[in-house]
């Protein structure tokens, strides 16, 4: 039996370990505390369409390819979960001023014109799908008229989410963009790995050369460059707050709510017991201390969007290090004849998990997933030669 070492126990590493074990590999996962890094801090949004912007075709196509895989991925994993993985079925991006409203129209016009990856009726992936073809994540369909994204006026936003501030001018609705409970996801992946026979080693790997396995998947997130010097992955700090609903507080929104307030991006993601509020973004290295300024900005901006949030209980403040890359696309591919990179996902690690797993499993089978070509690490210079993708 071929042996595989997975270095890093976030959602990417855990998912690769689970699926590789299913494929017949003898898998060992190395992480001093699996699931405790950026994956534990995340909001769990699956929103590649709402984040689209003209000129970012590769990022949109990659994220949409992963979004299309999420229904099947979640259905397989749900058997290992103790609670429902999905916490919302749609995403609503709102604008507070005319400039932000204009940006929403720009996003909608551009995304709705794109041919996006999706699944056909037989479950095969198509790269020529048009608006309206994205598979339903729930009983709700896509926007009216078969659009990926639908613009809403002030009244439309209020009808959908009456608890939002009356100062909201417009909205952008994505009925195919859900959210998952990141911590339920991590726990389900751990259980799936255990059931599949993955060996967990709670230890830090100091050198990939010390591993004797046939293949190595480097899924160490922001720390990947410490094990492969020159790999263009850096830590990007992000703070989030977890707010628990009290009896006197209004119910959480049914949608994931995204906005920009005073130039700062913000999101509110519903959970069964409250809301995840995020997220700040700083280029400060491996700093995971929560700052007073970060908490202040998040709460102030959230009140501008959801006035009743002040009635919620302050349950947790936590920060993590997202693995950023220079072009906001991950690095997935062979770094040499044995080591495969699966890192650099930035704030989209949970969204990008299914397509990343499929890409890594293809590489382990000496093939290449077409949808992941844009993530080939060969597009950057690294400190060691990159092989021809491991396809022989």
Query: Reading side by side through the largest sheet, how are the strands ordered?
Result: 7-8-4-13-14-15-12-16
Percent strand: 15-25%
* Low-pLDDT segments: 119-124, 127-145, 382-392
What is the count of DSSP helices, taking H or I runs of 4+ residues? Answer: 9
Oligomer: single chain
List descriptors:
392 residues, alpha/beta, 8-stranded mixed beta sheet, 6-stranded mixed beta sheet, 9 helices, 24% strand, globular, disordered C terminus
Overview of this protein structure:
It is built from 9 helices and 18 strands. The chain is an alpha/beta fold. The strands form 4 sheets. Strands 7-8-4-13-14-15-12-16 form an 8-stranded mixed beta sheet, with helices on both faces. It has a 6-stranded mixed beta sheet with strand order 10-2-1-11-18-17, with helices on one face. Strands 3-9 form a two-stranded antiparallel sheet. The radius of gyration is 20 Å and the shape is globular. The model is unreliable at 119-124, 127-145 and 382-392 (pLDDT under 50).
